[in-house]
Amino acid sequence: MLVHDPVDTPRPQAEADQIRQSLRARYDELAAEYEQAVLQSQVLRLVEVGDTAGDDQADSGTKTAERDTAQSLLRTILDRRAQYEHALSRLEEGTYGFCEGCGGSIPVERLEIFPSATTCVTCKQTRERRAA
């Protein structure tokens, strides 16, 4: 079970430890993925710098697109990692599993699919409608 009922009792230590371990494992995976993406980005830049002779517009455009894709991947990984950091800090504060919007309990099924969720489905949908 990833979240307890919204009562004033603290989360059982065993449950908190299990959640912490799961969140930490995913955070570590993302950190390793980020490091790998950084290395790949550096290799891409080195190849790009050493291989510009004779480039036409298509070659230049391809290199720019590859560089943009690599940068987008890095930003995405950093964003996901930040989400897991936030989830870990919410766990320490005792607010993990509760919606930041309405304060209600986030369904266990949502947390199992998206462990770093900070809002219930209703608040998430409301937020998305406002952004559209």
Automatic annotation (TrEMBL):
Swiss-Prot/TrEMBL keywords: Coiled coil, Metal-binding, Zinc, Zinc-finger
SUPFAM superfamilies cross-referenced by the UniProt entry: DnaK suppressor protein DksA, alpha-hairpin domain, Glucocorticoid receptor-like (DNA-binding domain)
Domain of life according to the entry: Bacteria
Coiled coil (UniProt feature): 13-40
InterPro entries linked: DnaK_N (IPR037187), Znf_DskA_TraR (IPR000962), Znf_DskA_TraR_CS (IPR020458)
Residues in Zinc finger DksA/TraR C4-type domain copies: 94-129
Zn finger limits (dksA C4-type): 99-123
Pfam families tied to this protein: zf-dskA_traR (PF01258)
A GO molecular function held by the record: zinc ion binding
Entry protein name: TraR/DksA family transcriptional regulator
Organism of derivation: Salinispora arenicola
